[in-house]
């Protein structure tokens, strides 16, 4: 004795997906219209402006800047492809192909106490392994190895 199951026709499910998509589009258009209107309508048309007391200017607090010595390394027998890394000033640098062993070093400056982001990605042309390492201020903070040829991977902190 079997238990009957009810399945919805594909047409009914597809219609619901289109309906939900339409609702999202309409909400997006309404949000954009509201944003444009709030910038276009003159301030005087929005009602009287409430005067607020003027505060005395505050001198900006001195922020201590620190430098971090960063080294990215790629180690392997067959080089690496599509190398992308976050360099000094958080600029992204890309290189189509490099020979290994490969490394780059720089100093990144930033506010003291702020967490910094370091990342390098590459593709293993294979065969064999490709290893990436990130060394910050003399300490290895990321170390990863991949062995599959053609595999794109990354080290990040």
Explain what the structure shows.
- Strands 4-1-6-7 form a four-stranded antiparallel beta sheet, with no helix packed on it.
- 20% of the residues lie in helices and 39% in strands.
- The protein has one helix at residues 10-40, and strands at residues 65-76, 80-86, 92-98, 102-111, 119-123, 130-136, 139-146, 152-156.
- It is built from one helix and eight strands; from the N terminus they run αββββββββ.
- β2 (80-86) and β3 form a beta hairpin.
Write the layout of secondary structure elements.
Blueprint: H1 10-40, E1 65-76, E2 80-86, E3 92-98, E4 102-111, E5 119-123, E6 130-136, E7 139-146, E8 152-156
Antiparallel strand pairs: 1-4, 1-6, 2-3, 2-5, 5-8, 6-7
């Amino acid at each position: 004795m079997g238990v009957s199951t009810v399945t919805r026709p594909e047409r009914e499910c597809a219609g619901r997906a289109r309906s939900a998509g339409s609702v999202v589009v309409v909400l997006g258009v309404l949000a954009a219209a509201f944003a444009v209107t709030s910038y276009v309508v003159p301030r005087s048309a929005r009602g009287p402006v409430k005067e607020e007391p003027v505060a005395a200017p505050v001198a900006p607090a001195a922020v201590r800047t620190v430098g971090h010595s960063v080294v990215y390394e790629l180690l392997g027998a067959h080089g690496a492809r599509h190398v992308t890394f976050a360099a000094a000033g958080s600029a992204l640098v890309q290189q189509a192909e490099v020979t290994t062993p490969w490394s780059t070093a720089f100093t990144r400056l930033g506010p003291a106490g702020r967490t910094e982001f370091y990342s390098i990605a590459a593709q293993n042309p294979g065969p064999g392994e490709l290893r990436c390492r990130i060394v910050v201020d003399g300490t290895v903070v990321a170390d990863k190895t991949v062995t599959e040829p053609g595999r794109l991977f990354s080290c990040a902190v």
